[in-house]
Amino acid sequence: MKEADLKEQYARFPEIKRSEIEKFLDWIHAQPHISKKFSEGEALHFFHACRSSMEVAKQVLDINLTARTHLDEFFSNLDCERPEIRRAMNTVSIVPLPGATPEGYRVIIGKLDDLNTSNYNFADVMKLYCMVFDFWMYEDGIQPGHVIVIDLKGCSLGHVARVGLLQMKKFLYYLQEAAAIRLIGFHFINIVPFMDKILALMTPFMKKELSSVLHVHSDLNAFFKFVPKQMLPKDYGGDEESTSLSKDIYYKKLLDNRKEMLEFETRHQVNEKLRPGKPKNVSDLFGIEGNFKKLDID
After folding, report:
1. Which of 136, 150, 187, 286 keeps 20 to 30 A from 236, CA to CA?
2. For residue 87, how many other CB atoms are within 10 A of its CB?
3. What's the pLDDT at 129?
4. Do the Cβ atoms of 255 and 41 come closer than 8 Å?
5. Which DSSP string do the residues of 252-276 spell out, in sequence order?
6. Helix axis angle, 122-140 relative to 40-49, nearest 10°?
7. pLDDT tens digits, 118-160
8. Would the CA dihedral through 266, 269, 273, 276 be positive or negative?
């Protein structure tokens, strides 16, 4: 893994002062429960995502690392040699696209490859998705915004039935409360007749901010207004390599950087035994009855 060049990132976002990031990093390294190996580039992602608010960045960072520590199904055992990750790699394509939209937004697209529902495990697919996204952001650096695209072609009710309600709740919590990105758009394409059932799984756990950027497209031409056709893979009529080829290339990156991904996992978790005050657990995130609770930040 090669971390994005810091000098180039500061040059592209001159409103972010390096002195502020250094103060933020000093605060991070002063927290006994957070890894001392947390990098300046990683701190920059949170500061940028939180629109240069130091206090919000501190809060989101702690929520992020706490969630990654306790949401085992998504963030533990990030070893791409594990059979469940290999199975997920065979089941879905998760591909960051080259280039950017006219606004400078970066795009990632996910789709089913293996339509056999018995091979689809939502938690494992989301774990792979987060691994790809983490690797991509680490090497790509901060960007004006990110767009998530989910292609539902081949999706069946059998796939939907394999999505646990609590798993959906946890993932959307992470996406909305903890992910260090500026999420500009969340698009579903090639929608299915039972789209209402998919949305019914998501809607109870979506905030207004996510609902406002959620788009459901029955017509690809409408989608192309958000993501230009030419920046998409050939299988969508675009100019870029097919998703199957791009998938193989990107998954090989994960495999080639297996050790670094495991180090990334360790660096992005907290040591609850060293946390000032009372240690956190999963009930502090979701509450005994499943209600989300705000984390207290020192």
Report:
1. 136
2. 17
3. 96
4. no
5. HHHHHTHHHHHHHHHHTS--GGGSS
6. 100
7. 999 999 999 999 999 999 999 999 999 999 999 999 999 999 9
8. positive
Structure tokens at 172: 């959307």
> Which residue(s) pair with 183 in the sheet?
146
Query: CB within 8 A of 278, min separation 6: which ones?
Result: none
pLDDT of residue 287: 63
Q: Strand 106-112 relative to strand 92-96: parallel, antiparallel, unpaired? A: antiparallel
Q: Please report, as a single letter, which amino acid is at residue 130.
A: C
Give the integer Cα–Cα distance in Å for 227 and 147. Answer: 9
Residue type present at position 137: M
Q: Are 250 and 132 in contact (CB under 8 A)?
A: yes
pLDDT in tens, 75-102: 999 999 999 999 999 999 999 999 999 9
- Diameter of the chain measured on Cα atoms: 55
Closest by CA position to 34, among listed 286, 266, 284: 266
285, 67 contact by CB (below 8 A): yes
CB 230 within 8 A of CB 238: yes
Say whether 40 sits in a helix, a strand or coil: helix
Contacts of 15 (CB under 8 A, 6+ apart): 52
Q: What is the pTM of this model?
A: 0.92
H-state helical runs in the chain:
6-12, 18-30, 40-49, 54-70, 72-75, 83-91, 122-140, 157-161, 165-177, 195-202, 208-211, 220-223, 243-256, 258-267, 282-286
